[in-house]
Amino acid sequence: MRIASPIRAVSIAMIVYVPVSLAQGTLQIQVNRGAAESYFVRERRSSTISVTVLDEKDRPVPGATVHFEVPPNGPSGSFADEKAFAITQTDSEGQASTTGFQANGLAGTYNIRVRASFEGKSMLAPVARTNEKRPFASKRNVTLIGAGAAAVIVPVLALRSTPPPKATISSVASAGLVGSP
Question: Quick one: which of 100, 110, 123, 154 has the most CB atoms within 10 Å?
């Protein structure tokens, strides 16, 4: 069976990929979490991608197999154990997710391919991601650079500044009465 190309319907909460023609027996994939997100390259923080698989009548499909796959080269990332794919099953609500996704070291935009299949029916949906270069002037970098600069500049200025004037304290002792009373 040939499945029509997906189109994208956008709502505030999720992205839904629906076939152009809802022929008998097609699936739909709703991306609940993880679409259109940006990550810094080599960021240690991992993320979750969550989808819901629905049938042609918008009912959840429990037990569907869901494959998450990243591009083999270029901007991309990896799942747990540095794998290029993750495979899971939908739960009773038709939801499937994968955790532990981390961006690789290349900046750019790419799609994670999500493929759901169940009883001979399948659907493919791209999940757009962006890996960004970390900006040089982050709050942490500015703090560290400022502290380092202060550690160098303050002692140098202390060495170069002119010493304060030395004060002399003198006392005068009275020599006794002078002249007649």
Answer: 123
**163: CB partners within 8 A, 6+ apart:** none
| pLDDT at position 52 | 94
How far is the C-alpha of 155 from the C-alpha of 149, rounded, in Å?
11
**Domains observed in the chain:** 6-132 (2.60.40.1930)
Amino acid at 106: L
The Cα 26–Cα 116 span in angstroms is 10
pTM: 0.61
Q: Give residue 129's identity as a one-letter amino acid code.
A: R
